[in-house]
Amino acid sequence: MQAGTYDFSSRLSLGEVIKQLEQGVPATNQVTIPEGWTIEEMGAHFAKLGYFSSSEFIAATTRKTASYFPEWLPQEVETLEGFLFPDTYALPLQGATPGDVVKMMTDRFAEVALPLYRQGNKNKLSLKDWVTLSSIVEKEAVLQTERPTIAAVFWHRLQKNMRLESDPTVEYGLKIKQTPENPLTLEQVRTANPFNTYLNYGLPPHPIASPGLASLEATLDPPPTDFLFFVARYDGSHVFSRTLVEHEQAIAKIAEQFSSP
């Protein structure tokens, strides 16, 4: 008989119970990790489910303190932020360790994302840069139809050596979350930190969340675009612009609509 936690229906016969124990198919929890979650959000979720503390999970995701770190990751990658693939996982009811979960999630990344990267990396992005840019696209995009265009805008800006100027990077660096009622302030946008893409050129030091497959695909091969700017409406969609003047006009129009009774 196999060790584990089992969930037996009262309708099962003794023979059926013994068969399950012999086959070693324990009961599991179906735990879903959504696209766009950070390691901290995942840790809080696992702690809420009663598996382990958030701090234990975070410790299992950094190269210096992890008991397991994927061999396929480049040596410059020090954190698994972005490399824990968002999906639904079958975890045992009890006994799962942070290392078990990390291995499960990075194995899933290797299964789903690595083949995509190796077969379609036309723009010659490093693995770390690809996941980092994809994580920004994940945090910016709400509508699936806009995801490729958002990826194209960021890629276009990088090619022109323009700052990405992405709000989610500021939020990640300051560990805050803006809302329509409490948007980022000018002081926050001007606060220096390595993740602030309003102040720093290029990509942040590492991903800011776990991108899903759609964002990874969109970032790997973005379509051509003339757009250089976009601003979010309050329904999740965006207005895309080619010039700064158009962009400022779009911002003013959205602000006016939001403030109207």
Give your account of this protein's structure:
Helices cover 43% and strands 7% of the residues. With 261 residues, it is mainly alpha-helical. The protein folds into 2 domains: 14-118, no CATH class; 130-259, no CATH class. The strands form 2 sheets. A two-stranded antiparallel sheet has the order 1-2. Strands 3-4 form a two-stranded antiparallel sheet. Helix 4 (98-120) runs parallel beside helix 9 (213-220) and helix 6 crosses helix 9 (213-220). The radius of gyration is 22 Å and the shape is globular. The model has no long low-confidence stretch (mean pLDDT 90).
Number of strands: 4
Q: Work out the helicity level.
A: 40-55%
| N- to C-terminal distance | 67 Å
Order of helices and strands: HEHHEHHHHHHEEH
Largest sheet: 2 strands, antiparallel
Beta-strand content? 5-15%
> Based on CA inertia axes, which overall geometry fits?
globular
Number of domains: 2
Mean pLDDT: 90
- The secondary structure category is mainly alpha
User: Using only CA atoms, what is the Rg?
Assistant: 22 Å
Provide a count of the helices.
10
How do the strands and helices of this protein lay out in sequence?
Blueprint: H1 14-23, E1 28-32, H2 39-48, H3 54-59, E2 88-92, H4 98-120, H5 127-140, H6 147-159, H7 167-174, H8 186-189, H9 213-220, E3 229-232, E4 238-241, H10 244-259
Antiparallel strand pairs: 1-2, 3-4
